[in-house]
C-alpha cells in the first residue's frame, strides 16, 4: 500500500469551497453553503465559482450572507467543523469589511427603532379607533 508523500502533514493543500465555508461556520450546513455558492453569493478572487472549486491558503473571498458582506482572506484549511474559536482561525477579515458590516448593522438597528409593532392584539377601543381612522379617506 503506497502512501502519498504529504501524508505526514494532516492539513490538505486545497479544500472544496462549500466544505470550507461550512467548516469556517459561515453557514450551518454544507447544503446551505452549496446553495450560497450556486446562487453567486460567494466569490473567489473577484469571480464567481462553483461548489466544487478548491480554496487554498491566501485566497481572497467575498461572502454575502443575508444583509452581511464579508471580505476575508483564507489563513488555514479544514474539512472538519470544529469549535468557533478554531473556525475563526481559518480566516482573517479586513478592517474595512468589519467596519462596513458594523456600520450597516448600526444603521439597520436605527431603522428598526423608529417603528415598534404592537406587543399584543388591539382591544375593543383600539379596534374602533383603527376602524375610524381607516374611514378617514371617505370624508
TrEMBL record:
Outline the extent of the RNA-binding S4 domain.
Answer: 15-77
**What GO molecular-function term can you cite, just one?**
single-stranded RNA binding
Compositionally biased region (Basic and acidic residues): 95-123
List the Gene3D superfamilies hit by this protein, alphabetically: RNA-binding S4 domain
Q: Which GO terms describe its biological process?
A: cellular response to heat
Q: Which SUPFAM superfamilies match?
A: Alpha-L RNA-binding motif
**InterPro entries assigned to the protein according to its UniProt record, in alphabetical order:** HSP15, S4_RNA-bd, S4_RNA-bd_sf
Q: Where is this region: Disordered?
A: 87-127
Keywords for this entry? DNA-binding, RNA-binding, Stress response
The family note in this entry says: Belongs to the HSP15 family.
Protein name per UniProt: Heat shock protein 15
* Organism, as annotated: Pseudofulvimonas gallinarii
Amino acid at each position: 500500500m503506497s502512501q502519498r508523500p504529504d501524508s505526514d502533514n494532516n492539513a490538505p493543500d486545497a479544500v472544496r469551497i462549500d466544505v470550507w465555508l461550512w467548516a469556517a461556520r459561515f453557514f450551518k450546513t454544507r447544503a446551505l453553503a452549496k446553495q450560497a455558492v450556486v446562487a453567486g453569493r460567494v466569490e473567489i478572487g473577484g469571480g464567481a465559482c462553483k461548489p466544487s472549486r478548491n480554496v487554498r491558503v491566501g485566497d481572497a473571498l467575498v461572502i454575502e450572507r443575508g444583509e452581511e458582506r464579508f471580505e476575508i482572506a483564507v489563513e488555514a484549511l479544514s474539512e472538519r467543523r470544529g469549535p468557533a474559536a478554531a473556525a475563526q482561525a481559518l480566516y482573517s477579515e479586513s478592517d474595512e469589511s468589519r467596519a462596513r458590516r458594523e456600520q450597516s448593522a448600526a444603521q439597520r438597528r436605527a431603522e428598526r427603532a423608529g417603528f415598534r409593532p404592537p406587543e399584543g392584539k388591539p382591544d375593543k377601543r383600539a379596534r374602533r379607533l383603527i376602524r375610524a381612522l381607516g374611514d378617514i379617506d371617505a370624508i
